[in-house]
Structures are given as C-alpha cells and as structure tokens.
Amino acid sequence: MQNKKKNKNEFDLPLLLTPGQDIAGYAGRHIGRAVLFCITAFSVIAVLLILFFVMKQAWPFIASGKWTEFLSSDQWYPQAEDAEFGALAIVTGSFYVTLIAMLIASPIGLLSAVFLSDMAPFRLRQIVKPVIEILAAIPSVAYGFFAVLVLAPWLQDHFGFSTGTNALNAGIILAVMALPTIISVAEDALSSIGRDIREASYGLGATRAETMMKVVLPAAHSGIIAAFILGVMRAVGETMVVWMASGNANQFPSPWWDVSSSVRTMTATIAGEMGETPEGSEHRFALFALGVLLLIFTMLLNLLSEIFTSSFKRTMGGKR
C-alpha cells in the first residue's frame, strides 16, 4: 500500500514546471555542484598551500646558492661558527633504510598477497586480511618503542652489533609498517585478475604454479609495482620510528653493506632539529630545504604510482 501511495505521489508531480520551479531546480542543481566542487577542491588547495609554505620557507637557502654543498657534502654542522649544511649522508640514510625495508617487505608482501588471493580458503582470508590491515593502525611511536626496547637488544645479543639502534633495526620496523599497504594493494591487483583467465590457463594444461608465475603475475604487474611504490612512500616518509631506531648518526655506512651502522634520515633530522632552530636562521631554512627534497621525492613516487595504477586499469579494461 505504501509503495502504491508513493508511486501515486510521484505520478502526481506536474509534467510541466512553472517558471519558479524551473528556476529553483536550475539554481539548486548548480549550487549543489558548486558545493561539491568546493569540498573536493579543499584537499587540493590544502596540498598546494603546504607546498607554497615549504617552498617559501626554503627559498632563502635555495637563493643563497648553497645547493651544490647541500647535495654533495656530508658535513652537517648547523651549530658551528662557520656552519655547514651538507645533507648527502642524511639523504643517503633515508634511501638506505628504505632500501633495507623494501628488500624485506617486497617478497614477504608479494607472497602473502599470492597466498591470500589464490590459496587461502575464503574464511581464512576474511580473518587474516583485516588482521594484517590492523598493523597500519598501530601508532608509529609504539613501533619505535618495540624497536628500541625489544629488537635493538635482540640484534646486539644475536649478531654482536655494537649498537642495536642502526639501519637494520629501522629497516626491519619500516618493513613491518609497509607490509599492510603492499599486501592489501597487491592482493587487490591479483584478485581483480578474472577467474576466467586462470581457468583458461588450467584448461591448457598449466599447473597452479605455472598459471601464477606466467599468467596472473604478469597480468597484474602494474598493480603490484604500484603496491611496492606505495610501500616505498610509506617507508621514506616515516619519522618517529627512524628517529628512535636508526641511531641518528650523520655518516655513511662503512663498508656500504654494513647494515649495523647507525644512520640519520631526512625526516628524523627535520623532526629532531626544527624545534630548536630560531625563526629566520639559516639552519631553519636548510631544514625546510630538506623538506622540499622530501616532497619532490614523494611526489615523484606518487606520480609513478598513478602511472602504474592507470596502466593496470587499462590492462583490466577499466574494471577495478
């Protein structure tokens, strides 16, 4: 009865609108569109304002022409009488711990995604995947305490390292933090490959392993690469964990494969020194220049991620 009454009311609407109703509908449609556009543009404007603010604060250092020293020297002595701002060791430290994290997280994340998408029973997948995603909700300071109080002593006791707060410690924790992103995105990419493609491969006599290695993984490679890039962005932008676990030593690992060396990263340097620098000092401008470098790197990674994601969507015919 209610449906009949509702349908009757809909048919009671006039087929021809009055000029007032027509104008009100026109105005409402455009006002609604403008409101939604403003809401959508808010995040874009916020990002642009952040970029403008960081660039404005870094500009005095950029205009001073010290970029060559900044990018080629490892002498970071901002408090010295003749201050030096060589950030090469700091930038290298960021890439070093990120590389360690990705060497650990990439194979684990990909194999976990393969298991969840093609091997795990549906009920187990419904339990395991949310648990993995909970890792992303743990505060980074909690990871930092675990790195300092548990992992650092363990590394010293079992590997004989002189200090447990080093590049390996930070890399392991960053890998754990990047895993939820890598597993979730890669699993989505693998699951979106249709079952018909897998069944066609099985129909041609391929085994499950051959189907995965020669059909599914190549078809989903763009989505998997995007997952890895998002994992890199998660690792390189992390602050608290590397501040607590990397040792904060402004040096190159020597030899370069010595993962037990303490290093310092861009994010930890900015977080550790920004609060102690006076307004308008060259030290403060140099820290914002580090921020500009970090922003450029993360934006390039984001661009690459978008390119691979778009490529994957085109491969799948826009189905995602």
Automatic annotation (TrEMBL):
Gene Ontology CC terms, in alphabetical order: plasma membrane
Domain ABC transmembrane type-1 span(s) in chain numbering: 91-305
Membrane topology according to the record: Multi-pass membrane protein
Described purpose of this protein according to its UniProt entry: Part of the binding-protein-dependent transport system for phosphate; probably responsible for the translocation of the substrate across the membrane.
InterPro entries: MetI-like, MetI-like_sf, Phosphate_PstC, Phosphate_Transport_Permease
Entries under Pfam families matching the protein: BPD_transp_1
Natural source organism: Sedimentisphaera salicampi
Keyword Membrane annotated: yes
Family: Belongs to the binding-protein-dependent transport system permease family. CysTW subfamily.
Transmembrane segments: 34-55, 95-119, 131-155, 167-186, 215-236, 285-304
Domain of life: Bacteria
Keyword Repeat among UniProt keywords: no
Protein's GO biological process: phosphate ion transport
Protein name: Phosphate transport system permease protein
Keywords: Cell membrane, Membrane, Phosphate transport, Transmembrane, Transmembrane helix, Transport
NCBIfam families on file: phosphate_pstC
Subcellular location: Cell membrane
Molecular function, one GO term: phosphate transmembrane transporter activity
